[in-house]
Amino acid sequence: MPPTTPLTLNTFSIVARDHASGMFGVAASTRLPAVGVLGPYARAGVGAIATQARTNPLLGYDGLDLLGRGYDAEETLKILLGSDPEPEKRQVGIVDSRGGSAAHTGAEADPWRGHVTGDSYAVTGNLVAGEEVVLTMAAAFEASEGETLPERLVRALEAGQAAGGDKRGKQSAAITTMKDQPYPYVELRVDEHPDPIVELRRIYEVFKVQMLPFVEALPTRSNPKGDFGEEIRGSLIPADDLPQADGKAPEEDLPPPQDLQTTPQGS
Known about the structure:
With 267 residues, the chain is α+β, with helices and mostly antiparallel strands. Helix content is 30%, strand content 24%. The chain has a single domain, classed as 4-Layer Sandwich (Glutamine Phosphoribosylpyrophosphate, subunit 1, domain 1), CATH 3.60.20.10. It has eight helices and eleven strands. The strands form two sheets. Strands 8-9-2-3-10-11 form a six-stranded antiparallel beta sheet, covered by helices on one side. Strands 1, 4, 5, 6 and 7 form a five-stranded antiparallel beta sheet that branches. Strand 2 and strand 3 form a beta hairpin. The relative contact order is 0.14.
């Protein structure tokens, strides 16, 4: 039996923090299925991490724990790499709760490989078309300041793909954002698609209209009941489909009466 080939996430990604909302997020795309399973990590009030190349998911989990204990992005990266047996094969991007960022690209990650960091973001890429992929992503993120974080992350992915993206092609894309609760604010995945970032954009536009008002009305730590008023309820259930006062469905929605007369067998 041949040896198992270690999973290599040849990926381009961005981790970021939004100054206005304090939201954290990660977005990534690759020529493998389901990049959202092992690449992005984020925790409300703590930070965000992307781990790729010869990916090590523990860097995501352990990194968030370190950030939660008060280490900044640079300190967290140093500790993670110091405890990893193969740091030269890893690529990691980190942003912390103060907007500090850090990134590492191991010398054995597939070329082109590299990263760029800025105020509250880090962009990483390996086996991408060239340096222009990460530079264009960073520029798109900076240029979109004032937009929501999910929007800015999707734009960064779109820019990276337009600059060439993954050398091998396209297959999956994902975005995850955490606001101020333990559950995600926007978390969307395109696990297998011929044009995943275009599909991610389509799903995101639908999500903004049909699901985001619901997410914003969910129970929170400070408001355990949530804000499910009639406006939210009506956005999820059209008025024509709501039960009547007696609990019955509208009459026009009931199926027609069935003919209960049976036909004798053999007729």
